[in-house]
Amino acid sequence: MNGSLTDTIVAPATPVGRSALAIVRIDGPQSSAILESLGCSPLPDERHAVFVRLKKDGELLDECVAIRYLAPRSFTGNDLVELTLHGNPLLVQRVVSAAISHGARMAEPGEFTERAVVNGKLDLVQAESVADLINARTPLQAKLSLSNLGGSLSETAGRLREGLLYVISRLEAALDFSEEGYSFIERDDAIARVDESLNGVQRLNDTFRRGVASTRGLEAVIIGRPNAGKSTLLNRLVGSERSIVTPVAGTTRDIVRETIELGGLPVTLSDTAGLRDSDDVVESIGIDRAREAARRADIILQLIDATAPDEEPVETSAAVIRVYTKSDLADVPEGELGISVPAERGIEELLARLDAVVRDQFVAPEGSAVLVNERQRLAAVEAESALRAARFSLADGSSEEIVLVDLYRAATALAALTGGISNSDVITEIFSKFCIGK
Amino acid sequence: MSRFDVVVIGGGHAGAEAARVCARGGARVALVTMMREAIGRMSCNPAIGGLAKGNLVKEIDALGGLMGEATDRAGIQFKVLNRSKGPAVQGPRAQCDRDLYSAAVRAILDAEPNITVVEGAVTAVSPGFVVALGDGSTLHAKAVVITTGTFLRALMHSGETRTQGGRFGEPSAEGLSDSLRAFGLELGRLKTGTPPRVAKDSVDFSRLEEAPGDPVPRPFSILTDALPQPQVLCHLTYTSDAAHNLIRSNLHRAPMYSGQIRATGPRYCPSIEDKVVRFADKERHQVFVEPEGLEHPWLYMNGISTSLPADVQDRVVRSLPGFEQATIARYGYAVEYDYVNPQQLDPGLQVRGVAGLFLAGQINGTSGYEEAAAQGLLAGINALQFVREENPLVLRRDQAYTGVMIDDLITLGTEEPYRMFTSRAEHRLLLGCDSVYERLTPIAERLRILDRERLRRVEARISRIARAREVTATPLTPDKTTLEWLREAGLSLSEKSSVERLMQRHDFDLDAFLMRAGTALPKVVSALRELTEEERESVVSAARYSGYIERQRREADKVSADEELRIPATMTYGLPGLSREMTEKLSSIRPASLGQASRIPGVTPAAIAILRMHLRRSVDVR
Ligand SMILES: Cc1cc2nc3c(=O)[nH]c(=O)nc-3n(C[C@H](O)[C@H](O)[C@H](O)COP(=O)(O)OP(=O)(O)OC[C@H]3O[C@@H](n4cnc5c(N)ncnc54)[C@H](O)[C@@H]3O)c2cc1C
Ligand SMILES: Nc1nc2c(ncn2[C@@H]2O[C@H](COP(=O)(O)OP(=O)(O)O)[C@@H](O)[C@H]2O)c(=O)[nH]1
Ligand SMILES: [Mg+2]
Questions:
Q1: Is A246 exposed, middle or buried (0-12, 13-18, 19+ CB in 10 A)?
Q2: Are A286 and A315 contained in the same domain?
Q3: C-alpha dihedral over B363, B367, B368, B370, to 10 degrees?
Q4: Nearest CA distance, B590 vs chain A (angstrom)
Q5: Ligand 1, atom 34: closest residue by C-alpha
Q6: Is B423 part of the contact surface with chain A (CB cutoff 8 Å)?
Q7: Residue B302 forms contact with A (CB below 8 Å)
Q8: Distance (Å, rounded) from C-alpha B75 to C-alpha B52?
Q9: Would the CB of B350 count as within 6 Å of ligand 1?
């Protein structure tokens, strides 16, 4: 990526704002020297917290606790200093500037994690998990990131790779030692083992929808005819008057979004313009946006006014929940879910339905490996296609060296998934294409 | 006192190639070796080539080396291994008459007026280069190529007895190891073994399985039109429980197990002791019985290499079917010798820091004639280039097995004798024997080391194949009768299709095609008929595997940028951010390119990133 990996960088590790404490990290070969110049002399032993009065040009900056980590036993794998200051943005800023005046450079976003990956302290999946963990908004999300940080995806991919190496090594032996009178592996056995790997990779690929949903959260869109009660429902679910509610059809025009937690995941609800043919330019744009949002949604709440039941068809691959509104004013057809916001009827039931849909269709199974981003999915898809090709050529009797081309391709793809990085260009590519790490 | 451009020490397979190529390139060469009659001697089995090794021999032939020619002159059974697989992994192999083989090597060297053969043992090499011989004489040279094989401070083990010597009946080389140390080189110890030889007339062949060669033997060298020797059979037999029990109960008498030998032997060439211990559940081990020559009275027992005492060897051999009455003519033995850790060499096989001193062959930790010869050729070429004050030749990993081998040696080093395997080449599909002349001969031509005749033949071959590829790739506009005929032959050829497309089909039968397509597709058939059988197979498989081959080509090209980012020889690794461990690794291997650096075990991507940044920066400055 951007900066050099060899110099010393500094940045606050906690968000800007007032708080009890704030942490500043200095990473690189000069980190200890900078700590010393800031008034910490003699330098403390590795991994020993010491109390330091930080000074610049004789002037007191702050009182802090400093810890020194020495390469390679640190988060980044380099010499690293952590300063725990008082949580005042002004103090933090002054300490960072002081470090810079002693030779450090301001860190780029994600640079500490990049260094950890490059030094082999974290594999890529783990680095991505760090980012996910930091960004987690619900306890379930945090748990999932922790599981990947602990290596459960890396382990699964690693196991798959081992299974492949089993086949690869035997096919290689069949090429290099064909005269030895051994049979290293039967075709049927090789096919069965490749099938097993293929299944494993497919299972992994199937986790992607859940994995993405679990890390990014879900989009739920409320649609229906004007005056069906969409804004009323959004306000009720959010618990505040976010959307303007009037008896006038066509009140809501732009999309109103609000996030709540459902089934353990953050779900962003969108209130949209009612679907109808309209001559109003602004309303028409709103209606187009509503249809577009519905196309991309994970979940659709389709509202039907029980007093004037009439459905507008929508195109979507999302999970659709049909809800009859105004059940206090009219009867709801047999077997359908009816709600009334003023009468506070059916709301619990609706929430339970939403919860179930989220859990059944979107939450990643706990403790198991899941793919959570596009980079991982591309690697798994590549592995799957390579394995299919290998299986095909195994079955049609191709010679081992041909089958092996695809098996190596699969193994390499899986290595990218576990972050077992063989080629430094891969890293550069990843860090330039995918924004990961903190 | 005699002055030469190049002195080659050792007349083994490496030394012979080195001397020959230097002479061909116009250098004045002295080949110093202990025994003139042992030049080109096969220390171990009487065979050349095999899987991956056969590719090395073809590469040598394409670069103007001698091993292929000598093999064709002495070969008594030719067989292409992995014939049922694709051409990229087929390996030609030839059983040789061992006496005819070394005679052929001597004849080839004698034909070079620029080579002076000096019989004698080199006891020291000193800077400048002064080469001192045992009889007190000295030779002076601009460049020296050391190819002393298994001879440096060599010890032979047979059961409990130990004898100094590099090969049966030949002395070891003392003294030279000290010269190498004086040049700053670090030496190690390796071992290898050889099986017993059995008297041919004591064997009951009716009890052995026959192992014939190919019905139509294929020569190694592009210079060979016809193979001069008659073709003979090899045989197979198998060990049994009786042999295994004998070995097990006498293990304490085997030098490797008693602790008498501590050096490391090759895992892939295990002694029969090793096989019995490590693969205890295997019921039988194959023994490939090779004739040592047409008239030679001995048989080589491939598969039971051993250093057990003589009485055990007798009983083990006699437990084999057909060998009940056999007498051993020479007992198997192991040899232990000094080698130089090849990580101390540069990609041109020159000792780092000693301009003009080159090492090749078993001294670099390899094993095998072909591995030795390929290195000898490259070291010879680079000694020649050194004398000419021109750039050394370094073959890339996607260019030749020789390139793979040398890169492995200098980058990874070796803890056991290194042998070539096809799996060591990540771009294997690009390195088939069939494409060797296209890949390498133009390089040799530029180096001015090729004879006219070879060049003429290679050019003819390349253009024949190109013509055939062209006509087979041309879309056909078949007339009605052709279409009819093709359909009859079970080949549905749509319009605008080509013969190449036909060839891609798994059920394509070239012979049937040639027999029947003559009248319908005369141009294609005549172009294909101009090819040899081997060339035709190459055209068909190039068509069939083109997708895979192109993919490997692209993969190879992807990494080539790192190969081209050269690291100057003067590089100092005290770079900011490089850990002490990385600095140590890089300064001890001193990689020549970033690509090589990235293959050093344990060098992290971080170190490579730092190095890349540094190299790019210094390139920018310049
Ligand atoms: C007992 C034994 C078992 C082997 N087993 C195997 C095996 O199982 N598999 C396998 O692949 N290979 C085996 N080989 C190895 C194979 O023979 C070698 O790899 C190959 O011959 C090496 O070629 P080279 O040119 O490096 O050296 P060599 O063929 O050993 O030739 C070295 C030459 O240098 C000469 N020489 C040495 N020192 C001096 C000196 N100081 N002055 C002058 N001349 C000198 C010697 O006389 C000799 O002619 C075995 C070799 C031996 C001896
Ligand atoms: N009685 C009753 N009135 C409702 C209910 N939901 C919405 N309304 C009324 O219907 C009208 C339109 O509601 P609104 O939420 O703006 O509909 P939208 O156009 O779909 O957003 C407002 O006057 C609401 O008060 C309901 O469940 N029961
Ligand atoms: Mg509304």
A1: exposed
A2: yes
A3: -60
A4: 19
A5: B10
A6: yes
A7: no
A8: 18
A9: no
Q: Is residue A128 part of a domain?
A: no
Cβ(A313) – ligand 2 distance below 6 Å:
no
Give the domain CATH number at B518.
1.10.10.1800
Q: What angle do CA B260, B265, B266 make, to 5 degrees?
A: 165
A47 and A94 housed in the same domain: yes
Protein residue whose Cα sits closest to atom 24 of ligand 1: B149
The interface residues of chain A toward chain B in range 74-103, judged by CB-CB distance below 8 A, are 77-78
Is A50 part of a structural domain of the chain? yes
Q: What's the rounded mean pLDDT across residues A222-247?
A: 88
Do B472 and B573 have their domain in common? no
User: Is B429 in contact with A405 (Cβ distance < 8 A)?
Assistant: yes
| H or E stretch at A25 | strand A21-27
Confidence at B565, pLDDT banded by 50, 70, 90: confident
Choose which residue among B8, B32, B36, B43 to substitute to test ligand 1 binding: the one with the highest number of ligand atoms within 8 A of its C-beta: B43
Interface with A, mutate which of B93, B234, B579, B611 (most A CBs under 10 A): B579
Domain around B24: 2-71+97-150+175-191+336-445
- CB–CB contact A6 B575 (8 Å): yes
Are B533 and B216 contacting, i.e. CB atoms less than 8 angstroms apart? yes
| B chain contacts of residue A401, beta-carbon cutoff 8 Å | 85-86, 88-89, 422, 428-429
Q: Does B320 reside within a domain?
A: yes
Question: Does the structure show a pLDDT above 80 at B270?
Answer: no
Q: What CATH number does residue B108 fall under?
A: 3.50.50.60
A399–B89 CB contact, under 8 Å: yes
* Chain B contact for A421 (CB, 8 A cutoff): yes
**Domain count across chain B:** 4
Cα distances from B80 to residues B86, B289, B458, in angstroms, run 12, 18, 21
- Which of B55, B77, B82 has the highest number of chain A CBs within 10 A, making it the mutation to test binding with A? B82
A111 touches chain B (CB under 8 A): no
Q: For position A1, what pLDDT does the model report?
A: 36
> In a mutational test of the pocket of ligand 1, which residue from B21, B261, B362 has the highest number of ligand atoms less than 8 Å from its CB?
B362
Q: Are B368 and B14 in contact (CB under 8 A)?
A: no
What is the token pair recorded at B87? 């051409």
CATH number of the CATH domain containing A401:
1.20.120.430
CA of A295 relative to ligand 3 center, distance in Å: 19
User: Do residue B43 and residue B182 come from a single domain?
Assistant: yes
Ligand 3 center from residue A231 Cα (angstroms)? 4
A200 lies in the same domain as A276: no
Q: Which domain holds residue A77?
A: 9-123
The pLDDT value recorded for residue A420 is: 41
Q: Which of B24, B49, B161, B42 is nearest to B100 (CA)?
A: B42
Q: Within this chain, do residues B23 and B114 fall inside the same structural domain, yes or no? A: yes
Q: What is the pLDDT of residues A396-421, one digit of tens each?
A: 888 999 999 999 888 888 876 764 43
Give yes or no for a contact between B132 and B80, defined as CB atoms under 8 angstroms apart. no
Residue A328 belongs to domain with CATH number: 3.40.50.300
Q: B116 and B6: one domain?
A: yes
* A335 and A309 within one domain: yes
Q: What number is the average pLDDT over the span B267-286?
A: 77
pLDDT 10s digits, A322-333: 999 999 999 999
**In this model, does residue A425 exceed pLDDT 50?**
no
Nearest CA-CA partner of B116 in B30, B40, B34, B36:
B30
Helices (H), B518-568: 522-529, 533-544, 546-564
Residues A270 and A324 in one domain: yes
Give the total number of structural domains in chain A: 3
Does any CB of chain A come closer than 8 Å to the CB of residue B424?
no
Does some domain include residue B26? Answer: yes
8 A C-beta contact, residue A52 and residue A66 = yes
Does one domain contain both B403 and B265? no
On chain A, the residues whose CB falls within 8 A of the CB of B604 are 118-120
Give pLDDT tens digits for B76-124: 999 999 998 888 899 999 999 999 999 999 999 999 999 999 999 999 9
